């Protein structure tokens, strides 16, 4: 079927649901470690607590991709039923996460939250390939990056904004501050509303031959299709997988350990560990509360600084959109240099004493994030069978979640020791990993994947 080119607003509408998805991811990425530490987790245990996120992605995304490939609802279409289901589950979970009374409950909520976000997110990637001709797919993924950048910046600043409005960012030992609770509630509301906006403003193309589609659906089997898809995986996808491995190892390191690393290294305000204080002693209780207050304030500042990478990725996407409206782009070299800049952003954190300069680090990291969210998918979508777009996007997710699982199971703790035993060592590791990811772009040689103009 010949697909017509869509207008700016049509692409905006079909991508707008990513605002809510990114609210969920930004609150999860920026503040789950803060919740874990508030509930008593020690720094070295945090990556393992995060293992829920990549494990659920590994399981959920190929299944949802397969199901959405084989779904057609007369009113909701192919991908939108999964947008809606994921949004409802994510919104409910976002509300309850900061009310976790114990560490194991918070870790359990992270499992549910990440699975729910993945239910919504995976079909959004496939929707771009479903609706846009090849000449507009880079444009579609860049548009998603724009909206993701907006969502990251706003959501990352929500706890800081709540504190600025007078809502307390302090609480009793083991209790999540009210500023964080309200931020997560707002995130849940935005998640649901933005997804509903896309559902109501976007129509999907029906199968060209509905009867043939139904027959193929009856004959399809998940396990069989999974192995066939793995066997048919194009070489471009495998090469991109290597780049994705090092890219997502770096960002998982940031999400899980930026808060403990930066509150200690830059702000000199590490989270107090309850077992190191005798809380029945009034003077030690006062010391614990003072240290806790400093940590919560520093964590607000780290979250706000992390929001800069969302803003930077949005600016990068805008620049890329304007440039590619007139000139051909080399996706390979754009991605390479973007990842290297992000790596430099992580590495210079080691030398930062004034918190203001964290903004420079996160601006550079945002450039790499903007590229990660658009260039690999643009290169991939030119190389796979459109009838299996959901399944192939789900399989591509393996190259995202496997490095995160390795990182969570001790990869960060062990490998970061190469860079010393300091609090900032994991951020240096993230920088080295991103630079290595950038250099791996030399593996990409297929011309169709490398160069295409957005129209």
TrEMBL record:
It is found in: Membrane. Keywords: Membrane, Transmembrane, Transmembrane helix, Transport. Coiled coil: none annotated. The chain crosses the membrane at residues 12-36, 48-68, 80-97, 103-121, 141-162, 182-200, 240-258, 302-321, 333-352, 358-380, 392-412, 424-444. The keyword Membrane applies. It comes from the Bacteria. InterPro entries: MFS, MFS_trans_sf. This is MFS transporter. It holds the Pfam family MFS_1. It is a multi-pass membrane protein.
